[in-house]
Amino acid sequence: MSLLRGVGQHLKTDHPYLTAFALVELIFLVLPSLIILVASLGAGEIIAFPPDELSLRWYFSLLDEGEYIQPFINSVMVATICTIISIPIGLSTAIGLNRYDIRFEHGIQLYLLLPFTVPLVVSGFILLILFGRIGWIGNIWAVGLALTIINIPFMIWSVASSVNSFDPTLENAARSLGAEEIQTFRHVTLPALMPGVISGSLMMFMLALNEFIVSLIITISDTETLPVAIYSAIRGNISPQIAAISSVYVIAAIIAIIIADQLVGLDKFLHS
Amino acid sequence: MSRIDTYRHTWTQFKWSVMDAIIAIKERIPFEKKADSNRFGYVLITPGVLVISFLAVGMALLTWYSFLTYDTIQIFTYEYTLANWNRLIQTSAFHTVFFRTILYSTLVTVLCVVFAVPYAYLVVRTKQPILRYVLLFGLFVPFFSGVIIRAYGWLILLGRNGAFNWLLESIGLEPLNIIGTSTAVIIGLVQYMLPFAVLMITPAIASIDRDLERAAKNAGANQIQTFRHVILPLARPGITAAAIVVFTISMANYSIPDLLGGGTNDFVANFIYQTVFGTLNYPFASVLSIVLVAVASIVVLGVFRRYGTGTLGVEVGE
Fold first, then answer.
1. Is B52 inside a domain boundary?
2. Residue-number span of the structural domain to which A88 is assigned
3. Residue A2 pLDDT > 60, yes or no?
4. Would you call A19 and B316 a contact, using CB atoms and an 8 Å cutoff?
């Protein structure tokens, strides 16, 4: 404990024990991601600790063998489709709910929480049945739509918080200066809602890129996404190649955090 | 004029003509005069309502399926039966799975709240920007890297030849078999859910007036007493919301019991998946799905009754 306390004091905080406790949690949180980065650099045929020597051979083998390239492209496409569909839906739903008198507003809000109350495995099962009946299974955009359905509340919340903090008198000002309704929306309202749209989009994109269980249920081999491919690989073997492809995700996560920090600031992102 | 200027000029002209065209079209549309403006609100929320209707329709469909007869060749026939429900009621194996799912999720919820409150408190109250940044970073790295990646990380850490056993052996201890036990599932789930819990509790702590803490200190309370009697009660809406989110997501988890539980710690989600893809028994999978939704809803409603809706209540709107 004295060591932890020393760390706390070194950081000169007024909560030395609390800081030490939080730092232990921090290690607990990031360790699984970091260990993947370390394991991916091992040169051996199996993952061993400590790695005998470091090499990038598994990263090169990813490119040479190429079995993860299609799932990677699928994942990026699915995430892009999901984000593109969700932006207009999130914008119009958030504006509709906040700016207009809507009857049964409370009921509609509960309804919009349905993607959270229905467990993901059940949502996957439902979409397997519905998309199967309509004949959409096997389409990459259907996977994108599925991920929009299960994650759309994040987008609506994110935009709604921007709508709430937006001052409507700005719109009146633009109108009284002669701007048409649509011009006002394009040049005044939309830019003011951008922070919400950006953090919502980032959220949607990252969640879709990582989504697993619904994708596992509704994808076929042509539309298989990267998490599904990694899952199948983990069950099959223990090659460090899986660690290499998984590192792509860890690195993507770190890049996304840096982007989020630059665009909206991590503190702000926390409150959306 | 340079070429770039010409380009910009044409572009601006193009944008203007597009905008003019849109306005012209809009003016042709008869409604959206002031009296109709509320109706326009319904038009705006329609896409969101439609997208989610997949799930609403699906739940109704599952209820219907749950009364159909399972058939090994055709998946199901349109004959109504209570057999699927009877099977659930009479098979004790399913009761065990439901009980395990609820028990583990409760444990995970308690652990997550206990771990999340101090972390969130420090994120909000620390005076050092670097510490806050590092803490936020540690929160978002797992949050953004997905459940499969993290479960895989735990496999590498806790596996037979993993980093943890290497550490144990190097200090002269016996290696442990953690993967495949309930401990591994709990560790995996807590690490998976902790960022959610912190993210939901942080705003609640941020909204607590600092002066209240100072007042408590002036009145002679030590840090623990301040925490117990000022922070915890005021942060309760956030804690309630976090508990609900952690509980419902853990309860529905598939991948962590599957990858870290070694087949002996399955959750209801694993059973649903096996029923759908193993035996193609859609009617029985529907029964399991409905009961899973029902159990989660009952617990959530119970918490709402007892502790209020927390910050989950009216998220949208004023």
1. no
2. 62-271
3. no
4. no
